[in-house]
Automatic annotation (TrEMBL):
Residues in FAD dependent oxidoreductase domain copies: 5-402
Family, per entry: Belongs to the DadA oxidoreductase family.
Lineage: superkingdom: Bacteria
Entry protein name: FAD dependent oxidoreductase domain-containing protein
InterPro entries per the UniProt record, alphabetical: FAD-dep_OxRdtase, FAD/NAD-bd_sf
GO molecular function: D-amino-acid dehydrogenase activity
SUPFAM superfamilies per the UniProt record, alphabetical: FAD-linked reductases, C-terminal domain, FAD/NAD(P)-binding domain
Keywords, alphabetical: Oxidoreductase
Pfam families: DAO
Record GO biological process: D-alanine catabolic process
Organism for this UniProt entry: Chromobacterium haemolyticum
GO CC term, one of those recorded: cytoplasm
Statement: the UniProt record of this protein carries the keyword Oxidoreductase: yes
């Protein structure tokens, strides 16, 4: 095994944080990325919120009924396009089974702990001088447009307070006092939930900063961009070599951190993972006259507005439509209509750049971190973070490193 390295597949935020943590632990690491640069997939232009206290899984009681109603709306926050793909049907069945309060609370508790670990690690990196990724602790305000939704939020605040979250339920006037830019928001609101210690940052810039940090620290990390994994060679229950189009790499350990691509790679190793893409969209634009100071989420619309480095990032949608990464013009137009209707003065919509990405989601919202059950002895997973990849990346890398140190 002399000369063999830990091979991390994927150079998004999960793969780069994994590589950094493993290299700091003394492992020689090679990062393999099929695209030409880091953060070119789901990490490229996501919502930018570091939501350490808003980690509840999508699967919850009442979601299936809401999803049926959403199917009838052109601008619904979730869209479903059924196919003959058995993996989609299996994922949907597992998602349906996870749509209950007990599973949601259990998943929330797991994700909360992982998020707090990530928060501490990011603070440590910032204390060490990591910067250049438009980080700001500006707090988060979730708006509710109906009294019923606000009452449901009250129950959520109580549950999160038991875990240790610092949140405050606000009435309409208190929301406007806290965020003056709400004067430019159209339509009534019933109230909101404020979390003062939430953060925003640019995920792509964070990935590039982490890549630079590894090189500056002199860690034993190699980056191979534009290199797609085509297969594996096994021996004695272990992955011995990873096959690229023009190269064969010896493998000490293999870490799959390739987002939605992780499912196909796992199938080459005989594993069927409960992983499926949820397609999300974002618009990035210069600030308007009512740019919010806080990061704001419109709960009913499932749309977030994040002020990042003097610009406005608007993100929405969780579409189960397969593996097509290209933006759906109808979906982009719907998001533009929504921004123009709901908060027309928050950003310069006519100058907005559009983006779509595939979030790797598990049915219950809890990522797969650690050894792959039933897989090769040296195969490790760091997959399935859904919309929380940026929030959970550092904590996930820490847990992966701990497991690998023990195994």
């Amino acid at each position: 095994m002399g000369g063999s390295r830990v091979l991390v597949v994927g150079a998004g935020v999960i793969g780069l944080c994994s590589a950094w943590r493993l290299a700091r632990a003394g492992w020689p690491v090679t990062v393999l990325e099929r695209r030409g640069e880091a953060a070119a997939g789901a990490s490229h232009a996501n919502g930018g919120q570091l939501s350490y206290s808003y980690v509840a899984p999508l699967a919850d009681a009442g979601v299936p009924a809401k999803a049926l109603a959403w199917l009838l709306s052109a601008d619904a926050p979730m869209r479903l396009r059924l196919s003959w793909d058995a993996a989609q049907w299996q994922w949907l069945w597992r998602f349906y089974r996870a749509c209950n309060r007990k599973a949601n609370r259990a998943g929330s508790a797991q994700l909360w702990r992982l998020a707090q670990e990530s928060r501490v690690l990011l603070e440590g990196l910032r204390d060490e001088g990591l910067g250049g990724f438009a980080w700001r602790r500006n707090g988060k305000l979730v708006l509710y447009r109906s009294a019923a939704a606000l009452e449901h939020a009250r129950q959520g605040v109580a549950a999160m307070s038991e875990l240790g979250a610092c949140q405050q339920l606000l009435d309409t006037d208190a929301c406007h006092d806290l965020e003056p830019a709400l004067a430019g928001l159209s339509g009534p609101i019933a109230g909101g939930v404020h979390t003062p210690d939430e953060e925003v940052a640019d995920c792509r810039l964070f990935c590039l900063a982490m890549q630079r940090r590894m090189l500056e620290e002199g860690l034993d990390v190699e980056f191979r961009f534009g290199r797609e994994v085509s297969g594996f060679e096994m021996a004695q229950g272990r992955v011995r070599q990873v096959l690229l189009s023009d190269e064969v790499l010896p493998c000490r350990h293999l870490v799959l951190a390739a987002g939605v691509g992780g499912a196909a790679l796992a199938r080459k190793l005989g594993l069927r993972l409960p992983l499926y893409p949820l397609k999300g969209y974002s618009l990035d634009m210069p600030a308007g006259e009512c740019l919010p100071v806080l990061s704001v989420t419109d709960f009913e619309r499932k749309t977030l507005y994040a002020p990042i480095d003097g610009r406005l990032r608007v993100a929405a949608a969780a579409d189960l439509v397969g593996y097509d990464e290209s933006p759906d013009p109808r979906r982009v137009a719907g998001l533009r209509r929504q921004v123009k209707r709901d908060w027309p003065r928050a950003g310069c919509l006519e100058q907005a750049t559009e983006w779509a990405g595939l979030r790797p989601a598990t049915p219950d919202g809890v990522p797969m971190i650690g050894r792959a059950p039933g897989g090769p002895a040296n195969l490790w997973l760091n997959l399935g973070h859904g919309a929380l990849g940026f929030t959970l990346a550092l904590g996930s890398a820490e847990r992966l490193a701990r497991e690998m140190a023990g195994g």
